[in-house]
Design goal:
mainly alpha; rod-shaped; single chain
């Protein structure tokens, strides 16, 4: 049979004290570390997104310059070949 006496009060106080100690020494520091890691990951993801956008812009600019250089080379080749008569190769 279960009897309710002073030991129940001691056990309740012990339980509340244990919760307070665990909260103070374990849960808060652990949750703080998890929060810092989450913020760090979010910052890293934002940096990755920014770098990808920069790379995409630079790649598009590079491809446009390359396309324009090819067009200019073809135009220059056409001009030169129209101006000069072809010499036979030896």
């Amino acid at each position: 049979m279960v009897s309710i006496d002073y030991s129940l009060g001691i056990q309740i106080i012990n339980f509340v004290l244990l919760i307070f100690i665990l909260n103070r020494l374990l849960y808060k520091p652990l949750l703080g570390m998890i929060d810092r890691r989450k913020r760090h990951l979010e910052e890293s993801e934002a940096e990755i997104k920014r770098l990808r956008e920069t790379v995409d812009r630079k790649m598009a600019a590079y491809e446009e310059k390359l396309r324009q250089a090819k067009v200019d080379a073809v135009e220059q080749k056409t001009r030169l070949s129209a101006r000069e008569p072809r010499r036979p190769r030896r």
